[in-house]
Write a structure and sequence with these properties.
Helices cover 51% and strands 7% of the residues. By secondary structure, it is an alpha+beta fold. The chain folds into two domains: 6-265, 2-methylcitrate dehydratase PrpD (Orthogonal Bundle); 277-404, 2-methylcitrate dehydratase PrpD (60s Ribosomal Protein L30, Chain: A, 2-Layer Sandwich), CATH 3.30.1330. A four-stranded mixed β-sheet has the order 6-5-7-8. The protein has a two-stranded antiparallel ribbon with strand order 1-2. The longest helix has 21 residues, at 22-42. It is globular, with a radius of gyration of 22 Å. The N and C termini lie far apart (48 Å).
Amino acid sequence: MSEFDPIINKISDYVQTYQANEESLKEAKTCFFDSIACALMALEHDQVKKFIEIDYIKNSQGSVRVIGTDLKTNVLDATFLNGALIRWLDFNDTWLAKEWGHPSDNLSIILALVDYLKNHRNFSLSFKEVLNYMVMAHEIQGALAIENSLNKEGLDHVAFVKVASASIGAKMLGHDDHQIKAVISNAFVDGQSLRTYRHFPNTGARKSWAAGDASAKALKQVFISEVSDESYPTVLSAKNWGFNDVLMGKNPLKLDRDLGSYVMDNILYKVSFPAEFHAQTAAEAAIYLSSEIRGKIHDIKEIKIFTQEPGVRIISKKGPLNNYADRDHCIEYIVAWCLLNGNLNSNSYSDNSASDTNIDKLRALTKTSEDHAYTDRYNNLEERAIPNKVVVSMKTGEVFEREVIYPLGHKKRRDESLPPLKEKFQHSLEKSDINVNNLMHFYDEKNLDSINIYRLLNYIYK
């Protein structure tokens, strides 16, 4: 049999041996609770509830639970639903590099397997083990994203979710070295999603459940590997039929970085605004300016947004915005809403909110362009800035402008972001009928060894 491609070997070696340090595990704890908050808040939305009520899932026999609900289903569909809930509002963590993504999407497979292993294989995990799996999933997805751009090939970033989830799922189920490599090879073989559902004219809600779908497909491959030796060692490098030749054009997949905890240590949180991350600092700038232009909206002559190259390519849009998914990925809509209202929340993208005619009037006055210095700071791995500047020019000649370099969830503003992240979690509990005091006890606990993952999860599920 051929040797496995080096990238597959590297990922397999990593998941079999890596142990994160205490600081990285504490960061993973913050990420864990932030992800749960996003899932609980998503349950307020009717479209999400329809997914929970899909007949074949609701009527499936199983013992694996779904966040914030009393539903018990099979492990694959629980993975799918937990992933959809965590991602639905575009409010969970973010990683920006050559490829973009949301590594906490992988928590869906981890949570599902915590239940599955306990119920079906009599195998228990510690909270620190769960956090270590999170660190590794973040690293696999994020490191691949640093060196490779799927979006430039028209592919969606959830291909990297599938690889990370497959790797971690195989490790959690106790697979040996060959099985782990086989599962990873299958994650690359598996059909990869087109990115079209994130862009005009096809933007749709699939972007909210695509990662959950990818994790569930990864888990299916993990289980298949237990009964069949499905290994494809040169899936990446095979001529004509391999991942690189078929999908990556002149940019074959690379993974030269050492794998550790860099991604978790530098993860970006969406603290205050459920919006695509390249627009986070634009939203903050526009909210600041809203008080300056209050009562003067009809006197605005022009709005300019200066952003990074991905901010132009991904979320700058003209013309009609057809739905929630279109609006929360439109920087001009976000800035207009924030200037008009001085806030931004998940209801800001609803059909009712979008009916305000002033939004499209301001969009028509807006020009978005790349600031090359911003792009350089964005691409600098030592800085990882996500800058935006909003400039509002009035018919009177007055000019109001605000620049924000680092979003609130950035590592450089981590201390500043911790109190509002806690408020975000508390708010998510208050919106549900989950016991606030019990879960806040776990949230505030500093000693990771003292947290029992099963007691904790009993409060998250109904």
